[in-house]
Design brief:
The structure holds 2 protein chains of 2 kinds. Helices cover about 40% and strands about 15% of the residues of chain A. Chain A is an alpha+beta fold. In chain A, the strands form 3 sheets. A 5-stranded mixed sheet of chain A has the order 3-2-1-5-8. In chain A, strands 4-10-9 form a 3-stranded mixed sheet. The chains are: A alpha+beta, B mainly alpha. The complex binds copper (II) ion.
Amino acid sequence: MLLNARQKWLGALIAPSFVASSAVAEPLSKINLRPGATELSQDIYDLHMLILWICVAIGVAVFSVMIYSMIAHRKSLGREPATFHENTKLELLWTLIPILILVAMAVPATGTLIEINSPEDADMDVVVTGYQWKWQYEYPGTGVSFFSVLRTPSDEIYNREAKGEHYLLEVDEPLVIPTGKKVRFLITAKDVIHSWWVPDFGVKRDAVPGYVSELWTRVDEPGVYRGQCAELCGKDHGFMPVVVVAKEPAEFDAWLAERQEAAAREAELASKDWTLDELMARGEQVYARNCAACHQANGAGAPPAFPPLKDSPIALGDPQRHIEVVYDGVPGTYMAAYGEQLSEVDLAAVITYERNAWGNNVGDQVNPIDIVEFAKSN
Amino acid sequence: MSAVDAAVDVHHDDHHHGPAKGIRRWIFATNHKDIGTLYMWFSFAMFLLGGSFAMVIRAELFQPGLQLVEPEFFNQMTTMHGLVMVFGAVMPAFVGLANWMVPLMIGAPDMALPRLNNLSFWILPFAFATMASTLFMEGGGPNFGWTFYAPLSTTYAPPSVTFFIFAVHMMGISSILGAINVIATILNMRAPGMTLMKMPLFVWSWLITAFLLIAVMPVLAGAVTMMLMDIHFGTSFFDAAGGGDPVLFQHVFWFFGHPEVYIMILPSFGVVSQIIPVFARKRLFGYESMVYAMAAIAFLSFIVWSHHMFVSGIPLSGQLYFMYATMLIAVPTGVKVFNWVATMFRGAMTFETPMLFSVAFVILFTIGGFTGLMMAMAPVDYQYHDTYFIVAHFHYVLVPGAVFAIFAAVYYWLPKWCGNMYDERLGKLHFWLSFVSVNVLFFPMHFVGLAGMPRRIPDYALQFADYNLLASIGGFAFGLSQLFFMFIVIKTIRGGRKATAEVWEGAKDTTLEWTVPSPAPFHTFETPPVVK
Ligand SMILES: [Cu+2]
């Protein structure tokens, strides 16, 4: 864009310290937007600096007149007040000049806004789905789909352990995208509104249940890019980060192929015969990732909002009822329908775990096949 | 007692109109001054309550990690802080000022509808008692932010949301009744000779604000009623699973919400436009353009609501339109700032406390205006939206904006209300404490916001730690300074140098309230003054 060159020149002239060439190499600014990793984020950054400096200039002009008169036009200096109280020309002038400045700012802003909202001709799609409180990433047509959950341990959050470098900005499985490709994000949510935000891409879009909105990016530098959910989405809104890893296309393809194989292996697991110990081991992991946020790692829950599972009549009672609660959720409450989020194996494992952990000791086990049958009869 | 009062007894020889004694004076109050006083004290109580919620927030954010409260309670604090400050502190303070000052400034004996006035005040304590009680209910109080976006506030809300809805309805009724009263008073009860274009700007600001209130409070009532229906009666206005639309909620809310922010700032404009000319000893520059600018801002406030929703998925054409429309607001707002500066220019200024707060208002409100202009640029708002940059912006326009204007108004008119001068040294100290701490509190929020810290989070990544610590220190200092303000006000009410009728040098020539004695007698302007 024509104007961009000028903006960059302006930025370079007045703000040498802010003009960072590459976001990945530079330490993150603690006081300003960062130029980010894409052309779009750079355009946004330039616009931001342009308008910032225009505001500073206007502010300096207006406040210096004001401060000058506060110093020079004081009664204690024996000043007599002037009597003027209107001046049509002046008033017209300070109505028209701001309008011209606004028009000058609207032109580049319009260009960038159109660019942001042009997701057409993408090389690939990623479906981003917000849940309380995790993100699901899906690569349509490949069968690859997974959840991305905060990895920071609660010991760090509750100050029992030193906080790591990427405290609250780390996930178990990041989204992976190829560099140099136009990637379109199809953003939606399953429960409440979330907002998917990667500052370095200049991409932020509300994830609204019932809607799919589109944004896009093209990242040139391989690297790890971190963001957060930006729309208040309930209890753990502050704990659902976004992490995106950009890989060279060849590496990306290898990664995707590996994920596809893993998905196929997972599917086979459903027909395997599971022992109680195997289910318990797997269930503990599934529970930690998906359920502990509300029901707590020790099963004690956080009543009244989140019931305990230790000694809960459902966890101790009829397995079919237990499956039903987990599979279908409890509509109108925080308890989501995990049937659509977890595999049969994971469901079986976590239910088995709940029935036998924390002294529940029911002793029975729920097998993947039970889940398959429950799903069929539903 | 003045000659005006003597005239009262001649007209109503059957009984004497003094204030009733004891608590009855306040419960059955119909006198605009008493009701104004009630509003002001109520507002201050809510300011302290909302402020204590803010202290919890700042204490939790003092350091990274969760120390004091759980996220669930933190969300209740941010929500209640916003609701209490907006609906309980700022709005009632301005209604209180309107009650006290509008009749005095237009030469009317009272508000047009005194009993309605009583009702609109006494609804408020019940509304806020209902609201505050939700904190003690099972499942906790509202935890979905003061903007209460559905479906977080409907399907996923705690059971107490129903009480929240009724509290909002009550506040809405109170505001609408108050607004009707203000309009009826201003349009019907001005002293002979006071044409609309001779009205003091504070009165103008309230006339416009009252129309905004009547226009948008019903919209808010509509929004919460739809929530009520979704929660209890099986409708799906905002529930996508039932064919509804969560974004509809945001449109309805911000159609109320954007004018609402002007409801909080227009009366501040009015206050500052009264004070600056008095202490500059010079007529307000551009009176007419001030009136037109306020009217223009009020009009624009109805057609820019979706600038709160640039990233909610509205179409490109919508984003473009709302970007252009929003940028336009800078024009009339700029006119107002330029006019204030031109009023000060070549005046003969003194800087008593009301003037200090007014000057700080002009500077700091303008900074909030600048960040507003930055956010109007839709593509850049993709980065700013829902970060602490936004929090910094609206706190700059609401705290050193609206709240400073209220402080200015209290110092300016307190001698008229209670007949005593406040202690100027203490007033100035309060100003400087507030001025420094408010900037230490809110300025760093610009930094963490730009650096990427989302709003409404109880814990944050390590790179935001330094400036959050600073903001928290500023927050505690600002909170303490307001207890000092309470001390100053009480001290003034209890005694002090007696105020003259005029109070401020030359004020008699500006507006009518300075022509009646200090303290203003219970009844004023029973015989209307004549305005030339
Ligand atoms: Cu979220």
